[in-house]
Structures are given as structure tokens and as C-alpha cells.
Design goal:
mainly alpha, Lysozyme, globular, Lysozyme-like_dom_sf
Length: about 325
Amino acid sequence: MAAGLAPRPRGGRGAGRFGGAAVRGSRAQGLSARASSGPSPGGRRDALTCSAQWYGPIRSRSEVPVPATPQSRPRTGRFTARLAALAVVFGLAFAVLPSGATAAPEHRPARFPVSERQFERMFPERDAFFTYDGLVAAAAEFPAFARTGGTVTRRQEAAAFLAQVSHETGGLRYVVAQDESTYPIFCDDTQPYGCPAGNDAYYGRGAIMLSWNFNYQAAGDALGLDLLNNPWLVEQDPEVAWLTALWYWNTQTGQSTMTGHQAMVRKAGFGETIRALNGPECDGGSPEQVAHRVDLYRQFTRLLHTPPGRALSC
């Protein structure tokens, strides 16, 4: 939710899965270990504001050999070694291919479509807690995110996600929701697991302001982290702050029929991502908030030199 507004409930209470991109066990354990301290005194950041050539034997005109000097001594050893190395490489390459076959190109994962410099331009006043490296590391755990389809589709999805993040966090200036009076409402005590961290512990945190105990439970299950008992980890570890946001974007539908990721790769439009993240704003519920989200998306697509597509509003 946007800074200064009461956090809104998130849709989708079941634990999601993200296409075989589970967090690696060793790192998940490491993240859990960092979370043992609980909340910092007074809470985490209330409102911090704010890139050789080889020469053959040299002979005189009379063909009399000239003793090699240090400068003219043939470098046959190094040259021969290089030729031998190349022969080995190409020999191996052709040895493993059947007659008439060609080598398949090496598969490399697509690079994240937003550079660090572009990220800095999108969030010039961001809290230092939200790092570009944290974003890229978290995005690597969701292989389909911003890596599906052509260049335009990938850039559009990255712009859409970051526009929603910017709206929810005031341009990444806020790590947690600012209205503390709303904190107790995000405990759904009808859930069998309750609110073991306290009734007021499940307020909005991270890059998408994850809120409600059932969302912390589902995100924790998917990411291999005990977020139900230690929700503060989302505001203490930059990568977890991004991981929870990407978990929601890639797995939860809210009041939509598709996730934010699906909405962008299926060309349903940016407006459908608003419905997935904060459905009550749509259909006239909060036109100012919708307009702000759309404006951010337009700004970010321009920065990424890509068209925004259709159906921007909801």
C-alpha cells in the first residue's frame, strides 16, 4: 500500500509455488539464522528519506643465418602452445558431434531487463535498505519473472512490478507501513495457526508491503522461511524484502483471475496487475490511487524504452 494510506488486505491465502524456483536450502537456512534476533528496538525504520606476431628465422640476403637476438628470437614455444590448445578445444568440439551435426548454442539465462543505473533513476530517494543486488538475487529465484517472451514483454513486466513497488513504498522510501494504528487489524485469528508473533506483528513490510498473518504463513512456506513466527525478517533482510514481493507477484491473484506475472505475459494489461495487488481500488474504488500506479508504470516504460501496452487501468 502507498505510504500514508492504511494497508489493504491481500488476496490469496493459500501457499503459492513459483515454477521450480524454490529458494536454495543453504541460503534459506542462512536467512532464517539471521532472523533470530526479532524486532529491533522501536521497530525497523519508521520513515527514512530521503554507478604477437611470430617471426620465422631471420635470414640475410645471402641467406646466411643470423644469430637470434633477444628481440628477434622466434617465439615458437608460445605460438605452438596456443595452437595446441586451440587444436584440443576444436578437436573435442568436433569429437563429441556426430557427422553432419552442428553444436547447439550455449544457453544463458536472460539478463534482468533493468540496469542498476536505471534502477537508481527510478528510485532516486530510496532507503538504502532496498538494494539493486537484493532485487537481482531475488529475481533469479523466479526464472519466469521478467524473462518470459520477447524484449518488450520482459521490459513491460519489470516496469509493471517496479511501478507497483514504487506506489506501495513511496518510491522505496519506506520499509514498513507508516500508519501504526492499523497494525492490529492484520491478524486473522480465525486461522488455525493464529498470530504467534503478536496480533500487531503482521503489518505491511518489504517491497510490496506484505501484510496479514496468512500471507506471511504462505510466503514463508513457499520460501522456506519461518515468517509466521518471525515476520520482522522481511524488514531486516533486503533480499527477503524482495523475495516476498516477487512471491506475491508471481503466485497470488488477489481479486483478479491471474497473477501480476500472468497479466503481463498474457498481455492482459497493467490494469489487471492492480486488481491482483489491490483489487478494491478498481472499478471506481480509488481512482486517484489507480491513476498514480498507471503514471508510475508509464514513467518506467519510458525509462526502459518500451511501449506500455494496452488496458492500463482497472
